[in-house]
From TrEMBL:
Protein name: UPF0528 protein CG10038
Native species: Eumeta variegata
GO cellular component: nucleus
PANTHER family: FAM172 FAMILY PROTEIN HOMOLOG CG10038
Entries under InterPro entries matching the protein: AB_hydrolase_fold (IPR029058), Arb2 (IPR048263), Arb2_dom (IPR053858)
Biological process annotations from GO: regulatory ncRNA-mediated heterochromatin formation
Phylogenetic placement of the source organism: Eukaryota, Metazoa, Ecdysozoa, Arthropoda, Hexapoda
Annotated ranges, domain Arb2: 6-149, 155-245
Molecular-function GO terms, alphabetical: siRNA binding
Length: 287
């Protein structure tokens, strides 16, 4: 991220409400929101959007480290130019551990949806509310970075060539070594497939320690792995729906129970159902 521009270089900043706004003449965020169109050339507009997105990722990383006091841990270990995860202070010593796994695409550690960060607000598009709530409730926190699979030159990052490989390495080298007797996982969209892979690959340790899994509009149904009785017992899937939060949603017998996330938009499900998710986790893993 060393060569990534800062948000200010694009003339943007976040206001006190966490909304991205153009900087005014005073150098502070004003009233004007993000504008995609910066020229008549669509490719130029798209390039500008993607570069701004990289600046947003840098901003989120900085926020995790400087405001939330999280620490980067390398993947693979002892590798200076690989990728990394984030962990809270003394996460490895906590009896309760929360693991956050985002979906696929351009999002990186700490994010649910880059588009929401840019067009809505920090809280709806990032995992920051989950991190704060977990730390307040005494959980250790570990944040995966499953989409960071390639170096700047295009080479595959060792042990992180795919979301599944990244997650497996993190389980082997970080999660398995913690003292946590009770692990909760929150996984959005493709993160559900990553969880299915972990549950299958580390069956004994996973079933012994993972007591709660909150899926948010998970696509784990596309996994080739079957939903086990264990997963049905410990997991719930908050899906995009126009129905009120926690309303029952038709669930096939072979599937994990589905309830409404309280919002019809896929990328907003994690933010919309956060209070219900933590209530579910606390019921499964009482302090």
């Amino acid at each position: 991220m060393a060569n990534i521009k800062a948000l200010g270089d694009f003339g943007y900043g976040f206001n006190d409400e966490g909304q991205l706004r153009k900087l005014d003449k005073t150098g502070y965020p004003g009233e004007e929101p993000f504008q995609f169109s910066v020229s008549d050339n669509h490719q130029e507009c798209q390039r500008h959007y993607e570069e701004l997105g990289e600046a947003v990722t840098k901003y989120v990383y900085d926020t995790l480290e400087n405001d939330l006091m999280l620490t980067r841990m390398p993947v693979p270990e002892q590798c200076a130019n690989g990728t990394f995860i984030f962990v809270s202070k003394e996460y490895e010593l906590k009896d309760r551990l929360l693991v956050l796994i985002h979906g696929s695409g351009v999002v990186r550690a700490g994010q649910w949806a880059r588009s929401l960060i840019i067009n809505d607000k920090i809280d709806s598009g990032t995992q920051i509310p989950y991190i704060k709530k977990a730390v307040e409730n005494g959980f250790g926190v570990l944040i995966m970075n499953t989409n960071d699979n390639h170096k700047a030159n295009g080479d595959t990052i060792p042990k992180s060539g795919s979301p599944e490989e990244h997650a497996s390495y993190v389980w082997d080298n970080y999660i398995s070594k913690t003292k946590a007797s009770a692990i909760a996982i929150v996984a959005h969209s493709y993160g559900g497939i990553v969880v299915m892979d972990l549950a299958n690959k580390y069956k004994d340790d996973f079933q012994e320690r993972v007591k709660a899994i909150a899926f948010t509009d998970s696509v784990h149904g596309y996994s080739k792995l079957k939903v086990t009785k264990y997963l049905k017992k410990v997991a719930k899937n908050w899906v995009a729906s126009n129905n009120p939060l926690d309303s029952p949603v038709s669930t096939p017998d072979h599937e994990i129970i589905r309830v409404s996330a309280g919002h019809p938009k896929h990328e907003l499900t994690s933010y919309s159902c956060i209070n219900s998710v933590f209530k579910f986790i606390e019921e499964k893993i009482p302090n």
